[in-house]
């Protein structure tokens, strides 16, 4: 059976599944039950400075987007960092770490962007026995208005500076948690790297207004008729997170920097995808909030089965395997030609593929043949875009079939070539050079 244990920047955990800093990791009561359920690690709900704790709204703090079956696709929140006092959190962390020495316990921190504030809190965290710290430079609401969270995460110079303080004054491994609310994620990642970060984690939540009530004209969640933007997470954000992880994994300056992947991990497959893009651990929040702590058991079993099937003995055996396959558009092979093919036995004749192709693609799918409702791809029109695959309600009913070398593409009349040819070499490219990737 596959060995799921991980050693991430020196922090060991029995599996790569960590709970992200959020309500599920808010207190010992939760964290202990999470460990009992099988979570390999936990990033404790973000701690703030000593003194009066932050105050949350007393009304709804969540908004959501659902699929037609009411399954949660995206979650929006306006919660702040922990609203429990620092002493209580530190005491509970100490007790929990003592009882669960084999599980990872990471302290997430957000204090003002001043040297003294960071210098003061670091030894207190170390005293708890925590395995590492995560710098919360991500929270996009509330705390950012006070110059913390995303307000720091959006300024690479600040990220570097605070990371340097944490390396200078602290002994624990430093994970810098990045905000996705920035144009190019490589800049904050490079800054964290320059500051000496041991790892980055991403993504934190995405600034969002999830919906507007059309009776009260208030954004949701509505607090007495008014709303403010919140942070978006859950399955809907996974594509954004994967892209940002890939950007960091393949960037010349940050390649090899350990990454803890976060954002929309709902199943073992999601986790495996983050690992394939280079992540050493994955963090989960919304899935645990939606389905409870025991969801980790399905994740562990699924990942383990997948690894057994593929012959991967450890996470390291497939970590990063997808990174070399992420490239820029200009390097994609323009000689790779596919055609859509409809499996007539599976087709329920709904006509969606025809409408999509007719109105937005290449008018390549019939609707009537000899006066009878029939959906079939005309190869001489099909550009292989796969829009029809994505709108078809029947899984595997339409597949994309690559053309073989030497065949003639009926659309262009050209013979399919075996060699790789990308835009940098294409005759239509005025900048074409002989250079391949
Ligand atoms: C209600 C709520 C509170 C959160 N609080 C924190 C926090 O205190 N510190 C932090 O770093 N991230 C916080 N997050 C962000 C999560 O740790 C995580 O980065 C994000 O939800 C994306 O993961 P997911 O798609 O699995 O939910 C919070 C998320 C939610 C939903
Ligand atoms: S792949 Fe694109 S062009 Fe071809 S049939 Fe489907 S939608 Fe039409
Ligand atoms: S969308 Fe799929 S099921 Fe519907 S007609 Fe097209 S191929 Fe058939």
TrEMBL record:
Q: Which residue numbers delimit the 4Fe-4S ferredoxin-type domain? A: 338-371, 373-403
Q: Enzyme class, one word?
A: oxidoreductase
EC number(s) per entry: 1.3.1.1
Keywords in alphabetical order: Iron, Iron-sulfur, Metal-binding, Oxidoreductase
SUPFAM superfamilies documented for this protein: 4Fe-4S ferredoxins, FMN-linked oxidoreductases
Enzymatic reactions: 5,6-dihydrothymine + NAD(+) = thymine + NADH + H(+); 5,6-dihydrouracil + NAD(+) = uracil + NADH + H(+)
For this protein, what is any one GO molecular function term?
iron-sulfur cluster binding
Provide the function of this protein. Answer: Involved in pyrimidine base degradation. Catalyzes physiologically the reduction of uracil to 5,6-dihydrouracil (DHU) by using NADH as a specific cosubstrate. It also catalyzes the reverse reaction and the reduction of thymine to 5,6-dihydrothymine (DHT).
Looking up NCBIfam families in the UniProt record yields: PRK08318.1
In Swiss-Prot or TrEMBL terms, this protein is called dihydrouracil dehydrogenase (NAD(+))
Taxonomy of the source species: Bacteria, Pseudomonadati, Pseudomonadota, Alphaproteobacteria, Hyphomicrobiales
Q: Which gene encodes it?
A: preA
């Amino acid at each position: 059976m596959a060995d799921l244990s991980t050693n991430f920047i020196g922090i060991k955990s029995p599996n790569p599944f960590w709970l992200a800093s959020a309500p599920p990791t808010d207190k010992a009561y939760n964290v202990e039950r999470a460990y009992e359920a099988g979570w390999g690690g936990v990033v404790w709900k973000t701690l703030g400075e000593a003194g009066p704790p932050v105050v949350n709204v007393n009304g709804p703090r969540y908004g959501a987007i659902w699929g037609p079956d009411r399954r949660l696709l995206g979650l929006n929140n306006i919660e702040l960092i922990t609203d429990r006092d620092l002493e209580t959190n530190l005491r509970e962390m100490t007790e929990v770490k003592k009882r669960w020495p084999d599980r990872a316990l990471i302290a997430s921190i957000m204090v003002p962007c001043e040297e003294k504030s960071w210098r003061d809190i670091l030894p207190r965290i170390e005293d708890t026995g925590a395995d590492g710290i995560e710098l919360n430079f991500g929270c996009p609401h509330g705390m950012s208005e006070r110059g913390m969270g995303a307000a720091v995460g959006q300024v690479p110079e600040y990220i570097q500076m605070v990371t340097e303080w944490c390396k200078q004054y602290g002994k624990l491994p430093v994970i810098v948690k990045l905000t996705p609310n920035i144009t190019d994620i490589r800049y904050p990642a490079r800054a964290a790297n320059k500051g000496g970060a041991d790892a980055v984690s991403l993504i934190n939540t995405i600034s969002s207004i999830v919906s507007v009530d059309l009776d009260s004209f208030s954004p949701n969640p509505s607090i007495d008729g008014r709303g403010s933007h919140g942070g978006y997470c859950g399955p809907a954000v996974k594509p954004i997170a994967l892209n940002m992880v890939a950007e960091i994994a393949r960037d010349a300056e940050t390649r090899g920097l350990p990454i803890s992947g976060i954002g929309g991990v709902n199943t073992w497959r999601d986790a495996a995808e983050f690992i394939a893009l280079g992540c050493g651990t994955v963090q989960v929040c919304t899935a645990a909030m939606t389905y409870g702590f025991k969801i980790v058991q399905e994740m562990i079993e699924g990942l383990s089965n997948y690894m057994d099937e593929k012959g991967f003995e450890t996470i390291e055996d497939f970590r990063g395997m997808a990174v070399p396959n992420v490239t820029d558009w200009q390097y994609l092979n323009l000689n790779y030609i596919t055609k859509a093919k409809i499996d007539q036995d599976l087709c329920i004749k709904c006509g969606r593929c025809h409408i999509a192709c007719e109105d937005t693609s290449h008018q390549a799918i019939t609707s009537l043949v000899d006066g009878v409702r029939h959906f079939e791809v005309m190869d001489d029109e099909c550009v292989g875009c796969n829009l029809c695959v994505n709108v078809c309600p029947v899984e595997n009913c339409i597949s994309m079939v690559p053309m073989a070398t030497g065949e003639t593409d009926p659309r262009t009349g050209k013979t399919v070539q075996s060699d790789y040819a990308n835009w940098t070499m294409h005759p239509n490219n005025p900048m074409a050079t002989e250079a391949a990737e």
